[in-house]
Amino acid sequence: MNPEPTPAGQPDVLVVGGGIGGLSTAYALSRQGLRVRVLEQAPEYGEVGAGLQIAPNCTRILADYGLLDEAKSLGVVPANMVMRDAVDSEVLTRLDLRDLERRYGFPYMVIHRSDLHGIFLRACERAGVELLNDQVVVGYENTEGGARVLLKDGRTETAPLVVAADGLHSVARQQLIGDDVVSSSYVAYRAAVPIEEVKDNGIAEHDVTVYVGPHRHFVQYALRGGEMFNQVAVFESPKALAGEADWGTPDELDAAFEGSCETVGVGIPLMWRDRWWRMFDRDPIETWVHGRIALLGDAAHPPLQYMAQGAIMAIEDGWVLAQHYARLVEATPAGTEPDWDGALAAYEAVRVEHCRRVQTTARAWGELWHLDGEARLRRNAILRARDTHDYAFTDWVYGPTALTPDEEPAMFTPIPLSSAAVEQPAA
Ligand SMILES: Cc1cc2nc3c(=O)[nH]c(=O)nc-3n(C[C@H](O)[C@H](O)[C@H](O)COP(=O)(O)OP(=O)(O)OC[C@H]3O[C@@H](n4cnc5c(N)ncnc54)[C@H](O)[C@@H]3O)c2cc1C
Questions:
Q1: Which residue, by CA, sits nearest to atom 41 of ligand 1?
Q2: Which pTM was predicted?
Q3: Within-domain flag for 18
């Protein structure tokens, strides 16, 4: 695919960061025949955390990569997503995930974070991606016809394209944009336990259940073929609001969930207490590409997690970038090196607005979930009135539109996904 090989030892693309965004992008680009090197700061490739929800806008890409069956064998395809009130446990609204699958052509799944990461890691290994560890990148600069990264040990690496997939606290973002992360004052606790431990807790084994309550919410679903049960407890930290440095501690967790319904109440003691995740995002930005340095995943658009789209957006980014590179190669006369600039322009044109919308909607969603008092009751009334088969709020996220721009110049015409059937819901 690359008609003019880069000098020996130099890859076609350097990807900084071996998280889900970096690995999925490395895999997508390697499928286009590119030689990809991943620079990961950690001594080993891996993921910390518990479950991830992956919606049809992700599973359609896994299907395109030939990885969906592996994901299904490791994850769970739940029956429903049910939203309940965290105080009185009343059902507020529901998505029928089997009907949703019919509508979007691909399943809504849940999977252990390390399993999804492992799928991409193995795919990269099979594809010959060079996976390096202990590579701490501390600086970036554009060069003639490419870009260079500076490593902590003083070495440099150069390639025609550098993709910075280095996460929420991205060094590249700091250097190129210089903005700060935004604290939500909310913190997440996680737990994944053997399902036997929770069978008598009033859980719905076959559903994703989200309990929304005043200044807190609680998520439950089964993982690993139903053998494990994942729980996420999220709450607003009074200490964070008071400006204290030591916020989100386990005493705050217990206090935040007092007065919750029984199922939530019995779930809280199971949460891991040695680690918690303070919730940050960033304000959306419009420029992700600086010369031959491209921000991707959380480095470009870290959301609050309320739409469960952060990892998915990172996977979409890599897919879109690779597709536009492929188009560029097709349009490039034989014997000429494809010019990355066109593919990078298309990448930005396709992705920026969609990811901005996810980031801002996730913030609004969080506010809606965490309402208190009269506003909570009004929200509940509106959610109860929603038709189960009303997809007005999911079409723009779960449909294939995130992969194509709203208004497209000729070079950005939509790329058809092999079997993306968008059907009307069953009667
Ligand atoms: C509680 C919670 C629940 C979530 N649930 C979901 C969900 O259900 N669905 C979903 O899609 N998303 C979810 N997300 C969001 C998702 O986890 C992130 O958006 C996603 O992991 C981002 O992937 P990434 O590869 O861009 O960044 P990261 O996962 O942060 O990976 C960045 C990688 O870069 C490496 N790195 C960083 N700096 C350097 C450096 N200087 N040099 C070299 N390497 C570096 C890091 O070690 C890491 O491996 C959730 C997030 C949270 C907090």
A1: 137
A2: 0.93
A3: yes
